[in-house]
Amino acid sequence: MDVFEAVAQRHSYRGKFSPAPVPREDLVKIMQAGLDAPSGCNKQTTSLIAVDDPEVLEKLREVIDPPIAETAPAAICVLTQRINAYRDRCFAVQDYSAAIQNMLLAIVSLGYQSCWYEGHITDTDGIGAKMAKILGVPDGYELVCFLPVGIAEGKPAVPGKKPFGERAWFNAFPVPENGSAR
């Protein structure tokens, strides 16, 4: 699968997963794709923990409320460190976002599905911190995302997208049809 096909095929999958295990070799490929993502000032603020042990997965799922990815045979937990990269600027969010997108594309290209669960994990109820404790994550790291990985039993929902011309232009932002200034 080429990169454009992977981009077109990637959609958030929230359905049931096959119980077939995800080979560690595939998890390594997926995580390496994440680690190969660009990083602001090369601070490399993103770290990853793959979870394929059913007992550990169950412990993680017990703290996630409402439940998600209950049948996924594997998951990748994304960690970040808030490190200033340039003057007082921290690019941790950009770093882990690029890593997650790379991993989502790798997941699809290997025949699996996933969903980017972040808001659910980083909300004020502290789910990410509870998950980090289960995984033995040291202070200085924040668990910000949970990516289930597995073979989908169903098809991902394909949301409608606005047409290209409503969101992308050449050389300038378009003048509104009523002709008023920008």
Structural description of this entry:
The chain is of the alpha+beta class. It has a single domain, classed as NADH Oxidase (3-Layer(aba) Sandwich), CATH 3.40.109.10. 35% of the residues lie in helices and 14% in strands. The chain has 7 helices and 5 strands, in the order ααβαβββαααβα. The protein has helices spanning 3-9, 24-35, 54-63, 92-109, 119-122, 127-134, 164-167; strands spanning 46-51, 74-80, 84-86, 89-90, 142-149. A 3-stranded antiparallel sheet has the order 1-2-5, with helices on both faces. A two-stranded antiparallel sheet has the order 3-4. A hairpin with a 2-residue loop joins strand 3 (84-86) and strand 4 (89-90). Helix 2 packs antiparallel against helix 4 (92-109). The longest helix is centred in the middle third of the chain and has 18 residues, at 92-109. The protein is globular and about 60 Å long.
